[in-house]
Amino acid sequence: MIQPLGQRVLLKRIEAQEVSAGGIVLPDSAKEKPQEAIVVALGTGGKNEDGSEFEFSVKPNDKVLLAQYGGTEIKVNGEEHLLMPEADILGIVGE
Questions:
Q1: Domains within the chain, CATH numbers bracketed
Q2: Is the torsion defined by CA of 13, 14, 20, 24 positive or negative?
């Protein structure tokens, strides 16, 4: 497993649907990158600009919304993951 450093978060994208709302099967080339992910691990934290301790707004297993092309794609144990600063996460998706 990878331990993110600083204020970074390790995410696993939630796969996009392979069938459109109209029932059309989408080829891989037509699929957009998923914009939802699950938080896998949090970074080591650190200090904010004012010297106070940084507190994460997300926690492991949270479902989050992210920018379509944000973060750095990496492979962990053969699986695609995304590493990005917590500030680049757009929001937490409620159940």
A1: 8-92 (2.30.33.40)
A2: positive
